[in-house]
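Action item from last week, closing it out:
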Amino acid sequence: MTGRKDANRLLFHLSDIHFGLEDNQALDWVKREIAERRPDAVAITGDLTMRARHREFNAAIHWITGLDVPVTVEVGNHDMPYFNPVERFFDPYKRFKGMAKLIERAIDLNGLVIVPLKTAVRAQPRLNWSKGWVTDRALAKCLDAIDALPEGRRALVAVHHPLREVGTEGTALTRHGGKALAELARRPVEAVISGHVHDPFDIMEETTEGPVRMIGAGTLSKRTRSTPPSFNELCWDGESLSVTARNLEEVNTRDMQIDDVPEDARPPREDGDPVAPVGQVPRVDPPVR
């Protein structure tokens, strides 16, 4: 709590750690920051693992449960069983045993309540299952939780996939994301925090019901996109939410952030792909072990 007013709340927003291809230097640094800064909570917006292997989950559970602060975790598409289709369809969260109580956990930060919205699904009627999908059931559960908040509370909705719809219906990043954003715009939602695209961002998305703030965290893995490994530091003073993109290379927040949401988490390859000003685009994607 050092250096913060009593009314302020500090949230560390982490994403896409990808144990199996994690950046250990970045993780050691983040763990030191958590121990020294003592944030009121840590929100991890999915993709804890690379291929949902048992050893990757064991590493993730060991690291996350050792943080010694309140933690909430979203499920990412990389966290679904990859090599075991039976488990993927019938028991997709089996490997989260050991931190099950942290999954989609609501946390109240002085009137700002983290509310989960699941976007990773075990299957969907399109070839790329890595993209997001907001089911009617998941949206209803999220909206019911927001509607049940006491008067004066605001929601910070946690998802894995950004809710921005991209391109045509066939290439949309998150199916039914536009519908979800419109419903959230009608409610006391401060922002939607997400991961998946491996670069941070802080943008306002216009909907038919009004604007919704979308905040994305970068990655703490070796699968960088156009910025170095990073996490978001969010400060809530009871009225407004500020965002700082933290990274070991001390790149300014604005230079870390992209202005648009790409369709996927791959590094930019084509002209016009969203790239942060720092532009650290890897020549090739790192090998998947």
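Closing note: The chain has a mean pLDDT of 90.
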